[in-house]
Amino acid sequence: MRLFLLVKSHFACIMALCAAGMASSAFADGLTNANIAAEEYLKNRESIKSLFCRFQLSVGNSPSLDDAMQSRIKTSMVGQAIWAFDHKVHKFEMKCSKEDIIANSKYHNGGRIMTLSIAPEGMLTNGTYQLNYSPMMNNRGMIYQPKIRADIPGIQPFGMGVMGANEEYNPAFGIRKWIEEKKEIECFIENGERKELVVVLKDESGMPLMEYRFSVDHGYCLVGHTVFARETGKRKFVIYIPEVIKVPTGQWMPKRSILIGFPSEPSGKYSTRVIEVLEVASVDSKGKDVFSLELPDNHAINDNLNPNSTVRFEKAQKIFPDDLSVIAKKCSDAAKGLNRVVVEKSN
User: Fold this and answer.
1) Which of 57, 135, 143, 281 lies in disulfide reach of 52, CB 3.0 to 4.6 Å?
2) Global pTM value
3) Helices marked H in 80-224
4) Using one digit for the tens of pLDDT, what is the confidence trace for 5-41?
5) Distance between CA atoms of 204 and 206, rounded to whole angstroms?
6) Per-residue DSSP letter, 295
7) Which of helix, strand or coil describes residue 99?
8) Does residue 188 have a pLDDT over 60?
9) Contact of 68 with 260, CB cutoff 8 Å
C-alpha cells in the first residue's frame, strides 16, 4: 500500500490543486511527514552519546543486483573495525590482513603511491587533540593541534562511507535543504515486512534525485537510500539495509548495510560494500582499553603545525586519550630544537 503525499513547489501547480480542493492538505501533509522523518532520524542518531561497536567491512563486486542485495559478492578485501565513543572521546581502528594488503595493492606514479579499497588505520581523540595513525605510512602518526579533523569516521554503520565527515550529509541534511529551497518532495508510507516512510527529493523537472527510506517502528532508522543520475534518472547507487539492531541505550542502528554501485555498462559488475555489525555494547562493559591505540616498535609521530618535526618511539606503546596532550607537547618541543627528529629510546 502506498499513500502518496505530494509536495509541489511550483505556484501554478499548487493553484491548480487548490482549485480541486486538494493542495493545502497534500502540501501540508507532505511537509509534515518529511519533517517528521528528518527530526526523528536525528533524534534517534544524536541521542546515542556512548557506544562500542565492532563490525566487519567487505568490499568486492557482484555479477547481478540480486546477488549484491543478498551479499553474494566476490570479496577483494575484508577489514575488521572497532568504533567506540563516549561523548567527546572517540576511537576508530580498522585492521586488514597482510595477505589482503599485498593482494590488493595498486601502485601509481612508478610505485610511489599505493591505494587500497580498505586501508588499515587508527584514530583517537579526546575532544581537543586527535591522533591519526597509519601502518601503511611507515608506522607514522599525525597529531592535530588544534583539532581540525572529523571525530566520526566515514566508514561505520551510520555513515557507510557516503555521508561525509561527521555524517554531515545525513538524510536530515538533504530533506531540510529541499524544504528550505522549496523544491519538490514526494513522501509516502509503504507497508511491507516493516512500515517505511519514504521521502523522494526531486529536481526542477520532477525527476527523482535521492530517495530515503526510514523504518517507522525502529526510531526512523535509515533502511534504504538511493541516488539517481541527474542526466538519465537511472540509479547510481543504492544502500539496502535489511537488518537493524537496538543499541544498549535503546536507540536503533543499521546491523547490515549493503552499498551497491551500478555498472556503467549493462554487462558490468556491481561494486558492493557490506558493513556487518558483529557486536554492540556499552563502553563501560569493555573497560579502559576500549579507548586505546597500540602503536608498534619504531613508530613516529609529528604534529600538523610542524610536519617536519618528528618524535620517534623505539618501543611499542599503548596510547590513551589522556596521553594525547603529552604527545602533542613532545612534538611541539621537538620542533624548537635544532635536531628535528627526537628519538625516545626504550628503557
Assistant:
1) 281
2) 0.84
3) 98-104, 171-180
4) 433 333 333 333 334 344 444 445 667 889 999 999 9
5) 6
6) E
7) helix
8) yes
9) yes
The DSSP element (H or E) to which 191 belongs, if any, is strand 185-191
* Position 192 confidence tier, pLDDT thresholds 50, 70, 90: confident
Beta strand pairing call for 299-303 and 208-215: unpaired
- For 230, other C-beta atoms within 10 Å of its C-beta total 12
Report the alpha-carbon distance of residue 267 to residue 244 in Å, rounded: 32
Would you call the peptide bond into 208 cis, given omega within 30 degrees of 0 as the criterion?
no
DSSP secondary structure of 55-99: EEEEEEEESSHHHHHTT--EEEEEEEEEEEEETTEEEEEEEE-HH
Q: Kindly state the DSSP code that residue 268 receives in the 8-state scheme.
A: P
Tens digits of residue pLDDT in 297-341: 888 898 887 766 788 888 899 999 999 999 988 888 888 774 455
Rounded CA separation 193/224 (Å): 14
C-alpha cell at 189: 508510507
